[in-house]
Amino acid sequence: MKVELENLSKRWGNVVGADSINLDIQDGEFVAFLGPSGCGKTTTLLMVAGIYKPTEGFIRFDGRIVNHVAPKDRNVGMVFQSYALYPHMTVFQNISYPLKIKKVPKDEMKKQAQRVADMMGIGHLMDRKPAQLSGGQQQRVALGRALVKEPALLLFDEPLSNLDARLRLSMRGEIKRLQMELGITSIYVTHDQVEAMTMADRIAVMKDGRMQAYATPDELYDQPRTLFVAGFVGNPPMNFLDVEVVREDGEYHARCEGFDVVVPPHRGEKIVGKGKVILGIRPEDITIADQGIAGEIFVVEPLGRDDLIDVRLGEAGVHVLADPTLGLKMGQTVTLDFNTHKVQFFDPQTEKSLLWTD
Amino acid sequence: MATTILRQTQDTAFEPERGYGVRRVLGRSIPYVLLIISILPIVIGYAWVIIATFSYRTRGLLPIDANGNIGGFTLQNWTFVRDPEIWRVTLNTFGIAVGMVVGVGFVSSLAGYALSRMNFAGRKGFLGLTLILHAFRPEMLLIAIFHVLLFIGGIPLIGKWFGFNTVGGVALVMVSLDLPLGIWLMKGFFDNITWDMERSALIDGASRFRVWWEIILPQIKPGIAALAIFNFISGWNAFLVPYTFTLGAKVSNLPVYLNRFSEDTAMVSWNRVAAVGLFSLLPVMIFFIFTQEALLNIYSGGAKGGV
Fold first, then answer.
1. According to DSSP H, which parts of chain A are helical?
2. Chain A residues within 8 A (CB-CB) of chain B?
3. Which among A145, A153, A147 is positioned nearest to A64, based on CA atoms?
């Protein structure tokens, strides 16, 4: 099912939940709403589900405006962060509840619930109560209940937040596989950028009720449209430096105290003469080299595969991913090479990208 | 080396128990002794009631016969059970108690849900007013209620059941006096259930009424049971309202009946009063035995986080 949100807003008095959200979701697409707590992603999701009535704007399912359609008539399935299993019902009763309401005949109901439960790997737990299940099993029951009525749209509200790290990883893969196999259009709300990046076809990044960007994971990563997106997407986060870009001897230099790099012309020419700008560069695009900009190591944080080191360059500092075998120590002086083909530039006032604005 | 250290610490750890065994026992029993002493007057009171109901007379806790000798057990205090009037009165009492349970339970579980979950004009004011209403003593309202009951009595059909000097009327007044507290309690129970539960059921296709009945109510069963028990007991023990708004044994209830016993102009037989009192206590005790499990049975939910 195709979903379109047009100018969608939700306000409670002066409190803005969501502010003019515009986006479209193709049939079978997996879209993530990504943003910090209170950014309006769950509000938007609940409007799509029909729980909240939009203050303004339209929600269209396959071109049909559904603003005033009750949740039960929208044919959506939803998985909640708290799972929201009915504690007084068994797993079977939980999963088959949507079918019971639809008045599906008993035999048919049993067959369908069993099929979904088997698919989720909980077919043997049908007689248990939710309290007798582990977190991962409860999650599967919730997913099964959302899937059993074969919805045209699946909504996920931070479904993995309550699981431990390992389980989260495996459930992430399972949900993605399931979504692809069933081909159900899905919206996935999360504050975890890794979840969004790994699972979604497209990501809507939100902040303070507004949509900051709506793009594929790669595009978000390589061409962030705003300072917020650049800082939010990617782990460890992007480094930001206040610089000025000047042209000298036919080369573009990005400079601040203790820092001076040459920027490729196709990026530099857009920035030159704009005064103070913010330069962004990801930790993995900075390498420790024999030559380059010198700085002192402030902290070394071992991450296992890499060491995350904080290097002081005059007033500023950058995070760099380094090979642990180098054996870097605090207080040591290193020289850094910046891959300037990957640098980003942002306007400090508007916080918009100076490279990717259309 | 390590094992010796472990053994040493163990030895020292157990030392005091061996050395000061008597003091330990004494120390442990002091709280019990204090507790027993403090509840003794109440226990003695109940013991007296039970003994007195089967005695001709009592001296202290000892039953005595007409000549003042120990003994003299008798069933004569219980002869009132052969009087059909007591059964009619018991039935009335039961009617008031059940009316309280059903009336308060039904109205406050609906009103509590609406106040907890729905947004409507005047919601805040209503909540505040409910709380203020609870602060009113029934005594202050007696005259006003009397007029209301007289008015209801004038309405055809309804008046016959809920007017002045009817069991229904007493139950109605009792229900309305207890509703503010009931509504507040129920609202509290509903507030404790996650919104997700409701949203989930709505998306699953349930109507609002069905969500209330099938999803939310079963989860606050212990709360409903508690409310029911309190209402049953307060309905069963109701005195002021039935005493004021009923005339004669036909519509009387047990506490009023008991009161009439002790204000007879003839000499009061306290042993008979005790017997009627014990009689009126039994159903409440039986009711409590059957419902206490529901009170203690607290659900462990299937929801994580944000509960």
1. 41-49, 91-101, 106-119, 135-147, 165-182, 193-199, 217-222, 227-232, 265-271
2. 46, 49-51, 70-72, 74, 76-78, 80-88, 94, 97-98, 101-102, 129-131, 133, 135, 138, 145, 149, 161-162
3. A153
B265 pLDDT band, cuts 50/70/90, is: low
pTM (predicted TM-score) = 0.78
Amino acid making up residue A227: L
Checking if the pLDDT of B187 tops 70, the result is yes
pLDDT at site B290: 79
Which distant-in-sequence residues (6+ apart) come within 8 Å of B100 by Cβ?
B171, B174, B175, B178, B231, B232, B234, B235
pLDDT tens digits for range A113-140: 999 999 888 999 999 999 999 988 999 9
**Cβ within 8 Å of residue B270, ≥6 positions away:** B52, B262
DSSP label at B214? I
Q: Starting at the edge strand that comes first in sequence, how are the strands of the sheet with A333-338 ordered?
A: A286-289, A333-338, A293-302, A307-313, A316-322
Domain ranges of chain B: 16-74, 83-296
Q: Is the ipTM of this complex over 0.85?
A: no
Q: Is A102's CB within 8 Å of B205's CB?
A: yes
| CB-CB under 8 Å, B303 with A129 | no
B303 part of contact set with chain A, CB < 8 Å = yes
Question: How many angstroms separate the Cα of A253 from the Cα of each of A20, A291, A315, B279?
Answer: 39, 17, 18, 99
How many Å apart are CA A347 and CA B28, to the nearest integer? 74
Instruction: List the single residue in B203, B210, B219 with the smallest CB-CB distance to A87.
Output: B219
Residue with tokens 């707590």: A37
Amino acid at A285: D
Angle between helices B84-117 and B270-296 (to 10 degrees): 30
Distance CA B248, CA B256 (A): 10
CB contact under 8 A, A87 and B302: yes
Enumerate domains of chain A plus CATH numbers.
Answer: 3-232 (3.40.50.300), 239-346 (2.40.50.140)
The whole-number pLDDT of residue B10 equals 47
Non-local (6+) Cβ contacts of B86 within 8 A are: B80, B257, B276, B279
For the domain B83-296, what is the CATH superfamily, name and number?
MetI-like (1.10.3720.10)
pLDDT of residue B269: 78
